[in-house]
Amino acid sequence: MKSFALSKKIWLLLGLIFLGLCLIGYMYFIAISDPIIRRANIIISNDSGVKNGTKILLVSDIHVAGPDMPPHRLAKIVSQINAQNADMVVFAGDFVSDKLVSTRYYETAQAVAPLEKLTAPMGVIAVMGNHDHWRDANEMRQELRRQNIRILDNEAAQIGPFNIGGVDDLFTQHMDLSKTLAAMNEQNGFPIIISHSPDLTAQLPDKKLLILAGHTHCGQISLPFFGPIFTASKYGNRYACGLMKEGKKTIIVGAGLGTSILPLRLGARPDMWLITLKTQTP
C-alpha cells in the first residue's frame, strides 16, 4: 500500500510538471505570435488642421533579443507595420532588451537595422525607453537616425498639422516634462505627447491631448479575474493598458511587441495601435 501511495504521488507530481511545461510553452507561443492591430477612432475638431482619416500607428517595447525577438522577426513585423498605410509611425521606446534569460543579445545596429524599411509619409518618430538608456542611449539615437527615425528628447516638433512633444524616459529620470511643454507652447497644431511611460499623464494639464506610451506591456502576464501582476507603473493599473480617457486627455498605452525579464506573455498579446483621427464640427 505504501508503494502504491508513493507511486500515485509521483504520477501526480509528473502530471503537475507536465501541465506547468505546457503552460510555459503556451505563454511563449503567445509572446512570439503576430501582433494584434488594435484600432481607435479619436474625434477631433475640424478646425485642427488635421485631415479627416489621418492615421498614426503606435508601436512600443520591441525589446530585440533572443529567443523571442530576433531581428528577422522584427523585419517581418516591419512589413506588417507598412501594410497598415499609416501616415505617421510612433515608437514609444525600449528598442532593445536585457532579459534575465536572453539566449542572445544583438548589437544596437543589428537590432534596429530592420527599421530601415519603414515607410510613412509624415515620418517615423521615437523616444527613448529605460532599456535603451541601460544599454547606451547615445548609440541608440545614432543608429535610429541612420534609419531615418526622428528622435525627440524632451523637445517638440511641428510635423504637418501636429504639435508633437517627445519626452525622454521617466523611469531612468531623464524626463524633462516642463522643457517639453514649453517647446510645445511655442508651436501650433494638434497636440500629441509621446512618452515611454504613461505615468507622466498625471502631471499633464487637463486639456485636449493625445498621449501615446508603452512600458507597461499591459502587464505582460495578466491573470484572469486578477489582471496584470505587474505594470512597472507607480499608479498600478490606472494607466496599465489600452485606450483611456482622463478629463480632456486621451491616453493610449500599447502592450508592446517584445518581452522583459521572461520571454513569456499571458492575457497580454503583442499589439500595435492604429489610431484614426476623425474630424467633426466642435
Automatic annotation (TrEMBL):
UniProt organism field: Sphingorhabdus lutea
Transmembrane segments: 12-31
Record key words, sorted: Membrane, Transmembrane, Transmembrane helix
Chain segments annotated as coiled-coil in the UniProt record: none
GO molecular function, one term: hydrolase activity
Residue intervals of the Calcineurin-like phosphoesterase domain: 55-218
Transmembrane helix keyword on record: yes
Protein's recorded name: Calcineurin-like phosphoesterase domain-containing protein
